[in-house]
Specification:
The chain is of the alpha/beta class. The chain has seven helices and eleven strands. Helices cover 30% and strands 28% of the residues. The structure holds manganese (II) ion (MN). Manganese (II) ion binds next to strand 5.
């Protein structure tokens, strides 16, 4: 099995090495990832300038750095390596729960895979208590990868790992309330500037990714590319047929 490993934290992140090492138990691994951090870049692609694809050293792995976004890395990685079976993205330094899914570059790499007809799995972990100890996470990363690789039905999956997981749950995305916030400030010259930041929501809904994570469980959310609001579309069609 050919496994393409990417991320949005940049190719020299400890998270991508941890993921490549875990992936190596399941197939041939190639790392293709952004040269510099691309967190919160979402599903951006680079279309106004060319992309480069340079070999680099990530332990014993065949690895290439790209001067682009996570989505670029998957498009280019799949172009350079025939018949990729699986794309793994992460392990992100920071969770991608709830609304973060919309902004995440980690997720975008997995989504780009799904757009190309390749399975995509995004993995993220908490950095609330400093840099994660990936050796401690490894048993759960192995367990989750084994479980998901043996069940090849889902095309797109979002996995979040707490610092010390105790169990695994299948969840849905939490979307009850947006947690993005603009915080104003000033630069050293007194000019106004703004930080767009995220404040964690206090309460989470039962059955969601956020809720599972808070309980110390690994959260696995199956996602789809079709964003159509079926309920609203149904209502519109009903209104039109009865008009
Ligand atoms: Mn990131």
């Amino acid at each position: 099995m050919r496994i393409l490993v990417s991320n949005d934290d940049g190719i020299y992140s400890p998270g991508i090495l941890a993921l490549a090492e875990a992936a190596a138990d399941f197939g041939d691994v190639r790392v293709v990832a952004p040269h510099v951090e691309q967190s919160s870049m979402g599903h951006a692609i680079t279309s106004t300038r060319p992309l480069s694809y340079h070999r680099t050293v990530i332990k014993d792995f065949e690895a290439f750095r790209v001067n682009g976004t996570p989505a670029d890395c998957i498009a280019l990685g799949a172009y350079q390596w025939d018949k990729v079976d699986l794309v793994l993205s992460g392990i992100n330094l920071g969770t991608n729960l709830g609304n973060s899914i919309w902004h995440s570059g980690t997720l975008a790499a997995a989504k780009q895979a799904a757009l190309l007809g390749i399975r995509g799995i995004a993995l993220s972990t908490s950095i609330d208590d400093g840099e994660p100890d990936f050796s401690k996470l490894r048993p759960y990363v192995d367990k989750v990868l084994k479980m998901l690789i043996e069940r090849p039905k889902s095309m797109l999956l979002n996995v979040n790992l707490p610092r010390e997981p105790t169990d695994i749950r299948w969840t849905r995305q939490s979307v009850r309330q947006y947690d993005g916030k603009v915080v104003p400030g000033t630069d050293p010259k007194g000019n106004e500037l703004f930080w767009f930041t995220v404040t964690p929501l206090k309460e989470s809904e039962e059955g969601t990714d956020r809720c599972a994570f808070e309980k110390g469980w690994v959260s696995i959310t199956p996602l789809r590319l079709d964003l159509t609001d079926e309920e609203d579309l149904g209502r519109v069609q009903e209104e039109r047929s009865s008009a």
